[in-house]
Amino acid sequence: MNIQQLEYIIALDKHRHFAKAAEDCNVTQPTLSTMVKKFELELGVDLFQRNRSAVIPTEIGVLIIDQAKRVISESRKIQAIVVEEENSMSGRIRMALLPTIAPYLMPVISDMLTKALPKVEFDFSELLTSQCLQALSDNSIDIAIIASKSEMDDLKEIPLYYEQFLGYVSKNEALFEQTSIRTNEVDGERLWLLDEGHCFRDQLVKFCNLKSFVNKHNTYRHGSMATFMSMVETGQGVTFIPELAYPRLSDAQKELVRPFAIPRPSREINLCYRGDFVRQHILNAIAETIKKAVPEEMLQLRKGDQLV
């Protein structure tokens, strides 16, 4: 048994396909297949059921793969400890961001992270909150920028900034004539909102007390914030955007923005990581770089704001 064999069975479980797993591990398919079979013979059990349509872990295979993930995670910490002891700002960091954060934060921090940490290779991805938390637990990412507390014992957070929700209102709506939005004036039938699972949507629905939000006129599945903004710009309904989106708007687009009346809904943006993540120097450098990238007034919860 060796670390390489463990990596092979983890990759095969991830892809459920020998060719894709081999490509992920940068080996040939026969090599991976042979090594997996050799591992099964060493253990005396079948780890996978093989058929023409899929490769599926057996019951005992699931248990062994879970243990393999823990072994790989622990083995990687050995080199990480050495790097951290040397205070080396180098290596690879796998970072995930929410789809309602990435489009507005990434253009600001990408170049700043490169300059602050020139020897660090970043691997960015966009994931929903639940996917971020699962990926952290699986050790398939190192850190995640999310808009909530993780509420998981093995994860920790560093608060980064606080971001208000802003209304984006078409000129055909009654709300357009007002300077601010009150929650009791939000009409669920006129809203364009992201699907369930996006915390941006879930937090707004809760704050506005839209217990059973359904757009009765039209529905739009798997829509994006950019799409909904375009709908509003053509005179159709209302949507909401995060505060960091505002500086990127044109003057014409800014005319459609309406803040909430007090209390204004706001979300806490956190840098989330595993409690056993050892590369604290890089972690702190990333957090400080992000804080420098956002307006100073967003670093603290402002008077009149309410966390959702």
Automatic annotation (TrEMBL):
Organism superkingdom: Bacteria
Signal sequence interval, chain numbering: none
Record's keyword terms, sorted: DNA-binding, Transcription, Transcription regulation
Domain HTH lysR-type: 1-58
Ranges in coiled-coil conformation: none
InterPro entries: HTH-type_LysR_regulators (IPR050950), LysR_HTH_N (IPR000847), LysR_subst-bd (IPR005119), WH-like_DNA-bd_sf (IPR036388), WH_DNA-bd_sf (IPR036390)
TM annotation in the entry: none
Similarity comment text for this entry: Belongs to the LysR transcriptional regulatory family.
The protein's name: LysR substrate-binding domain-containing protein
